[in-house]
Amino acid sequence: MLPNPLALIAEITHRCPLHCVYCSNPMQLAATQSELSTEEWASVFEQSGKLGMLHAHFTGGEPLARPDLRELIAAAHNARLYTNLITSGIGLSEPRLKTLVDAGLDHIQISFQDSREDSANWIAGAKSHAHKIELARGVRRYKIAFTVNLVVHRQNLDHLEEMIAFIEQLSPERVEIAHTQYYGWALTNRAALMPTQAQLNRAVAIVAEAEKRLAGRIRIDSVVPDYYAKYPKACMGGWGRKLMLINPAGKVLPCHAAEVLPGMSFENVREKSLEWIWRESASFRRFRGEDWMPEPCRSCERRSEDFGGCRCQAFLLARDATATDPACSLAPAHHLVESAVREANSEASVAQPTALSSFVQLQKLTTDLWTYRTNPE
Amino acid sequence: MASPLDSSQPRLAAGCRWAPSTTGKEENRMILFPEGAIKLQGTGRQVLERCDGQRTFSEIIAELQKEFGTTDPEKIRADISTFLEQLQKKRIVDY
Ligand code: SF4
Question: What pLDDT shows up at residue A181?
Fold first, then answer.
C-alpha cells in the first residue's frame, strides 16, 4: 500500500530580497500575480493534514515577502501540522516574529551566507548580515526551535571554523551545514562554487571536532556533497515517497527541480486534490518504486536506500532523466562528475578559492564571476 | 556532554512537542521536532510524559521504579539516563 506523504514543502513565493548565486529555485521563476491566495493555501494545508502529513515547511523565495504569512502559518497550525519557517530573516522585525509565534510557528531556520560581513553580503548580493545577527538574538526569546543554516561552497568553506564559532554565540539547537547542490542557479555557477578536495577534507575534520565539542548543546547536520561521495543521496527520500512540494503558482512537484524534466507535466492544486495527485497522478508515479530503473541500479543492493539518486541531476548532467544519477560511482555517466571534480581541483580552474583578505577587493573585481539570481515578474 | 543529575529537570527542548491527540487514548503518541517525529509507546512514552520541566530526574526514576516494582533499580536509572542523553544529543530534550 502507498504510504502517506510525510511533509509539505510550501514554496509560497519566488520573490526574494536576496539574489544568492546558489539558489535552488528554478531559473524560470513563478510570477507574482500567479501566486496562490491565502484561502487556496489554507485549503492545501487542510488537505495535507488529512492526508497524514506532519510537517509544513514554509520556503520561497523569501516567505516573509508574503504579507499574509501569519495567516498561512495559522492555517497550517490549525491543520495540525508542525510549522517550519525557512528564511533569510530579511524583513522580519521582532513584532512580526511575535505574531508568527503566536500563530503557531514551531521552528525557524535562518540561513547565513558567511561569518564575515563583507563576503556574506557579496554572496547574498545584498546588505543583510548585521540584521540577521540581531534577529537571531531576538529568536531566543521565544520557545521555538532555532536552526542556523549555513550554505557552504568554494568561496566560504575555508572560514568554516570561524563560522561555527560565530554561530555558537547565537545558541541555536541546530546547525545545518548544507553544501551547495548544483541545480538551477547553482549549476550555472558551479565552477565558482565547487570546493576542492583539500577544502572538503579540512571541513570534515572541523565538523567532527565541533560535533564532539558541542554535543548536547548544538546538533550539527552535515552531509558530504554528492560530487565527492561514492553513492548519490536519496533525493527527497525517493521520488513521490515522502514529500510534496507546491510552488507559488500551485503546481505540485515531487522535488524542487522537477520542472526541468522534459516531457513531464505537473498537476495544480487549483484543479486536483492533493490526495489524488499523491496517489494517482502520472507525475508522482513516474519514478516511484523501481520499475523505471536502468542498470546498474536495477540489480544494485543500494536501490532501496538511494532509489537511484536524483532524476533531475541525471537529466541536467547526462541529459537523461531515467539514467543512474551521475554522482554515483557506478553510473555509466559518472565521468561527467569526475571531470567537474577534476576541474575544480586543477591549478587552472576558473575560480580559485578566495583568501580572506582579498574578499572586498574581489567583490569589486569579480561580479562577473557568477550570475546573481533575479526576481520573478 | 553529561548525564542528567538527580536534581536535573528534564523537559522537551524548544520547538519539540507532543502531536495533538485525535482520540485522547491512542496507544502510540508522537513527539514532533524539526527533522521529523518519533512514535512512543511503553516505557519511552512513560519517561517522556514525565519530562515536564517540573519533576526532577530522581523523582522520575522513583515514579517509574514504583510502577515496575520488581526490576533492578540501578538498571532503570542507567537505562533512563542513556535514553535522555541520546535525546539531548538530538536536541529533543533538555535538562
Ligand atoms: S547504482 Fe543506482 S542504486 Fe546503486 S548506488 Fe548507484 S545510484 Fe544507487
Answer: 85
B 16-75 residues with CB < 8 A to A: 16-17, 19-20, 30, 32-37
**Structural domain count of chain B:** 1
Is position B64 within any domain? Answer: yes
The number of angstroms, rounded, from the C-alpha of B38 to the middle of its chain's C-alpha atoms is: 12
> Among the atoms of ligand 1, which is closest to the Cα of residue A325?
7
pTM of structure: 0.87
- Mean pLDDT, chain A, integer: 85
Alpha-carbon distance values, B57 to A28, A173, B83 (Å): 55, 22, 12
What CATH number corresponds to the domain at position B78? 1.10.10.1150
Query: Confidence class of residue B2 from pLDDT cuts 50, 70 and 90?
Result: confident
A111 CB-near residues (< 8 Å, 6+ apart): A86, A87, A88, A89, A148, A149, A150, A151
Residue A11: its H or E element: strand A7-11
Q: Which range has the worst mean pLDDT, A1-5, A186-190, A341-345, B47-51?
A: A186-190
Rounded to an integer, what distance in angstroms lies between the CA atom of residue A166 and that of residue A189?
27
Rounded alpha-carbon distances, angstroms, from residue A40 to A10, A32, A153, A248: 12, 15, 37, 11
Q: Which amino acid is residue A341, in one-letter code?
A: V
* In-domain check, residue B3: no
d(CA A146, CA B30): 20
Q: Is residue B1 part of a domain?
A: no
Per the CB < 8 Å rule, is B88 touching A216?
Answer: yes
pLDDT tier for residue A187 given thresholds of 50, 70 and 90: confident
Distance A187 CA to ligand 1 centre (A): 22
Edge to edge, the sheet with strand A82-87 lists A219-222, A174-179, A145-152, A107-112, A82-87, A55-59, A7-11, A243-246, A252-253
With a threshold of 0.85, tell me whether the complex ipTM lies above it: yes
Q: Which residues neighbour A12 within 8 Å (Cβ) at sequence distance 6 or greater?
A: A35, A36, A41, A58, A59, A60, A61, A63, A66, A69, A72, A248
Chain B residues whose CB is inside 8 A of the A145 CB are 13-16, 33-34, 91
In the structure grid, which three cell numbers stand for residue A254, read together? 515531487
C-alpha cell at position A370: 557568477
A6: Cα separation from own chain's centroid: 17
Q: Which residues of A touch B30 (CB under 8 A)?
A: 54
